[in-house]
């Protein structure tokens, strides 16, 4: 099993013919971790995104993400033991390259769900992508016979560019499953499943989620007991991180792979902030992966959001900084220490606008912003602080469509010169022209 989950040293290169090319993607090959992935019309992983593979910030000792990860692991190790050993196993080096089946199909995510869209995910080809959530490994671990586990790693999603969004971030996902004798220790007469459902033949039953309180295969007693455990354990985790006096609330939510589902929000800096999502695992997932006599809960949370709140880190890009002035504030410190980030220095912004006419076959409403964001990030790298859509314009006479974006440049470790910013801005103009046949205004 060790071999199955080993990530190893990752390196990657993208053929020059793929980069900003209008040529058919079928001629391009991506080389990652000694493997080749033939590109197709789904391929949208850029060289910049591929370069983040293998950084594993959550395992970098003294990094704020690693400190938060360790606090979460410590909480579960302390809270759940069996005969003196931790109940939960931890998987924090799983390969970030997964199949569409792992990322979507195994989790009952419908074919028309927006999370599958090319505008939301980084695809290597139509069958393979960078995982969009750590839940992508849930079924394989269940199939391996595990029942209580934490999955921790980097995930990849196409998104806007600002101080709280980055295309790569880190998640902790978990599953805790229990059999009847574990769940109903004091009430052996109670059952996990309704009499109409036979767990030995789950395929003979159509599980329904029309009841807001439970899945049709589960008894209300089993669901409510699991819900109580889930909320108690996760509230305990949040109180361990933020203090016992933190205000909180549970909000009903929807996830394709759990029912019922909730989000936990805390009142932080005068506003409600979501910190995690959770729910009772759909029984179809358990049955397909192997366990046919258990009920389980699952949850997922983002390490960046927690770390930025706990340490008052203002810009998510700092998580990727190698600057010693940033890292030394967390290195060689107790993971439970209360640390408030102190800016080393504030370097000035450089702001440039870019506007262009779109080709006739693209409108201001059909142009995909995330395509432009990735192009800008791929060229400008981590000095891109923010990209905002400033204006949409349709010429009243020619009916030609135009977009204008504001790009904010700022280096985290030095002052940028106007000349080098202008040079990068020219590269971006050339790339968007070559890639989308636009005309710079």
UniProtKB/TrEMBL annotation:
TM segment ranges: none
- InterPro entries from the UniProt entry: aa-tRNA-synth_II (IPR006195), aa-tRNA-synth_II/BPL/LPL (IPR045864), Fdx_antiC-bd (IPR005121), Fdx_antiC-bd_sf (IPR036690), Phe-tRNA-synth_IIc_mito (IPR004530), Phenylalanyl-tRNA_Synthase (IPR002319)
Keywords from the named record:
Aminoacyl-tRNA synthetase, ATP-binding, Ligase, Mitochondrion, Nucleotide-binding, Protein biosynthesis, Transit peptide
- An example Pfam family from this entry, by short name, is tRNA-synt_2d
Q: What catalytic reaction does the record list?
A: tRNA(Phe) + L-phenylalanine + ATP = L-phenylalanyl-tRNA(Phe) + AMP + diphosphate + H(+)
UniProt keyword Protein biosynthesis, yes or no: yes
EC identifiers of the protein? 6.1.1.20
NCBIfam families the record matches: pheS_mito
Please name the PANTHER family in this protein's record. PHENYLALANINE--TRNA LIGASE, MITOCHONDRIAL (PTHR11538:SF41), PHENYLALANYL-TRNA SYNTHETASE (PTHR11538)
Protein name according to UniProt: phenylalanine--tRNA ligase
Q: What species is this protein from?
A: Chilo suppressalis
What lineage, starting at the top, does this entry show? Eukaryota, Metazoa, Ecdysozoa, Arthropoda, Hexapoda
């Amino acid at each position: 099993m060790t071999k199955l989950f080993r990530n190893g040293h990752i390196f990657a290169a993208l053929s020059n013919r793929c980069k900003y090319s209008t040529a058919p993607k079928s001629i391009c090959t991506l080389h990652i971790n000694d493997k080749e992935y033939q590109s197709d019309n789904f391929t949208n992983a850029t060289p910049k995104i591929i370069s983040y593979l293998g950084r594993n910030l959550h395992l970098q000792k003294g990094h704020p993400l690693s400190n938060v990860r360790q606090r979460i692991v410590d909480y579960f190790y302390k809270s759940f033991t069996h005969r003196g050993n931790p109940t939960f196993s931890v998987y924090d080096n799983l390969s970030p390259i997964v199949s569409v089946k792992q990322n979507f199909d195994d989790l009952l995510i419908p074919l028309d769900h927006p999370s599958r869209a090319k505008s939301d995910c980084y695809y290597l080809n139509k069958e393979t992508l960078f995982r969009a959530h750590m839940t992508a490994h849930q079924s394989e671990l269940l199939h391996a016979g595990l029942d209580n586990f934490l999955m921790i790693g980097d995930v990849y999603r196409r998104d806007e560019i600002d101080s709280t969004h980055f295309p790569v971030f880190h998640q902790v996902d978990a599953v805790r499953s229990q059999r009847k004798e574990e769940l109903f220790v004091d009430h052996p007469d109670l059952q996990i499943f309704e009499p109409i459902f036979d767990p030995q033949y789950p395929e003979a039953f159509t599980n329904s989620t029309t009841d807001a309180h439970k899945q049709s295969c589960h008894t209300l007693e089993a669901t409510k007991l699991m819900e109580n455990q889930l909320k108690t354990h996760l509230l305990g985790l949040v109180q361990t991180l933020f203090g016992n006096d933190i205000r909180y609330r549970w909000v009903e939510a929807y996830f394709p792979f759990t029912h019922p589902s909730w989000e936990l929000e805390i009142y932080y800096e005068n506003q409600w902030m979501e910190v995690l999502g959770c729910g009772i695992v759909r029984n179809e997932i358990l049955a397909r992966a192997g366990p046919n006599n258990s009920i389980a809960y699952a949850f997922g949370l983002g390490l960046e959001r927690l770390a930025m709140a706990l340490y008052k880190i203002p810009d998510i890009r700092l998580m990727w900084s190698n600057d010693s002035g940033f890292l030394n504030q967390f290195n060689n410190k107790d993971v439970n220490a209360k640390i408030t980030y102190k800016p080393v220095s504030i370097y000035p912004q450089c702001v440039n606008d870019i506007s262009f006419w779109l080709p006739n076959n693209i409108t201001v409403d059909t142009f995909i912003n995330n395509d432009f964001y990735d192009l800008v990030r791929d060229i400008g790298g981590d000095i891109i602080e923010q990209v905002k859509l400033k204006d949409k314009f349709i010429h009243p006479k020619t009916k030609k469509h135009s977009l204008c974006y504001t790009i904010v440049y700022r280096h985290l470790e030095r002052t940028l010169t106007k000349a080098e910013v202008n040079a990068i801005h020219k590269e971006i103009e050339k790339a968007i022209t070559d890639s989308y046949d636009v005309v710079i205004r």
